Sequence to fold (589 residues):
Amino acid sequence: MPASALGRPWSSAARVLLSSLAVILCLATLPIAGFSPAAGEGSSVPGLSREETLRLGERIYRDGILPSGEPSTAVLPGGNSVDGTMFSCVSCHLRSGLGSLEGEVLTPPTNGNILYKPWSSILEIQKQWTKGMGGSKRRYMHYLTRVGDFPKRPAYTDETLADAILGGANPEGRELHGAMPRYTFSERDMAILIAYLKSLSSEPSPGVTETTVRFATVITEEVGRKERDEMLVPLERYLQDYNRRQPSQSGGPGGGWSGGAPRIVARPALPQVSLALWELKGSPETWRGQLEEYYRKEPVFAMLGGITTKEWRPIHEFCEVHMIPCLFPITDLPVVSATDWYTLYFSKGFYQEGETAARHLARTEDPASGGTVVQVYPDTPEGKAFAAGFRDAWSESGRGPLVDKAYPAGTRATREFLERTIGKERHTVLALWTGAEALPALEAAAGRDGGISTIYLSASLLKGGLPNVPETLKDRTYITYPYALSDPDPGSLRKKPRLEITDRRIGDKMASLCSVLTELFTSWQSNFYRDYVLDIIDCSMPMDSSQFAPFERTSFGPNQRFASKGCYIVQVSKGDRPELLIKTDWVIH
Fold:
């Protein structure tokens, strides 16, 4: 599939059918205990260990890079040859190999459990699975007819699979869809790729037994009882309710597909779910060892939620190493990475607020005309996160130099420190990443004229101190506000947002996580593969919605790892009854 198609929003029908069609194709062919001998044979190539074979095959599948280090070659309709990195297998078949749908192009599964079984048996299962759907069944089968009705075919062999990849025809000689490029591989490279496909989503991931799918959640010891309970209690109740409502033959939570699509009545019985509490003590440097010990004693399929006031990095890195999905932890200090895969976050946290301030500044002012841009922050993980977001976004804007000034952790930004930092420069832009305790010092240092012309603060750090922004500074102070604001008044386009951030919106975030779990449990059927969990979320979550409270808008798509990508810029109005004044739209690019 062309790389340009990957970032387009999925239609409602596509989102519904994406995981569901792949599930139908896989349903009866993926038993919980192991996979067919045909698919498991030949898991290595002569001269290579099994581990090296799979590593090299994964690189071909995911990146389009051959064992030689050179890109593969993809031949498009019309005979044009392009770099295979633009048309890697994962682009359409996804990391799990269980396929995708875009428009009316259905990309079927490419894992050995499906490829090495005849298509006719899958069709029979499909027909059985849709019994009792009435009119919904007829509409569903009509859709299959429009996209090709999945013609019968015999099981692939190594030879016919190689022919399909090279020549674009199935075992009966029927030409594959034109969206499927034809590739040029040597015999050895083809053997490596086929060995990888046989192993892909071949056995359930760790943490799955015949009776239970095990999850874990993480809480670090400094988290207060109130925040701990706000995260843990709703998650425990949701999973307990899921287990109670999980009969031997039924749909999962939500009762089938969403969005008015067919409701599936019958399906294989699913295991119960369990939730282990992994409590981490001491400094973050010790967390990795504690996590490894928990995991050694009882591997889990995925991690749900979790909460800390410290950096999430040790947990993030643990999940990357063990390839464990980690779904939406409560943290203001996520790992901001363009390449890591296994942790999904609500937002970039404090980094995102710093990023937003710099982008707003780059769009509204030109400090290069005799002024300077300075950011001041405490030498703490929180301060560094704000500063990193601002620094990265300001650098991308190409708008001029930036002065970074950190002050020691455990101290305050005093008037003297701010005056020394600002110096005698006029028209200074100051991003001050600290709490309301610094407002008196800021007012004294800023002065009424000259000095600091523009100020950026964070609502997350000011919290209940938002109304305390000094009157003399309100006109020149802009505040990052990372959550949704209240609905507009009837008949008015102006919003009246709440004038404080008193908590981390934990309850709203956990409700959003449970909504994601409903979608996941409805879609995964018996496909207990970690990468498939992330494929479902990547491609079935709405691209632009309010599903992820408490944010104004969220979006998800392939390879995205942050649900909320926006933030408001607001000001505090003058007078005895201050309100927040919205200065920007939600997303600032």
In short: Residues 570 and 582 are 5 Å apart (CA to CA). Residues 1-42, 127-149, 248-267, 487-494 have pLDDT under 50 and may be disordered.
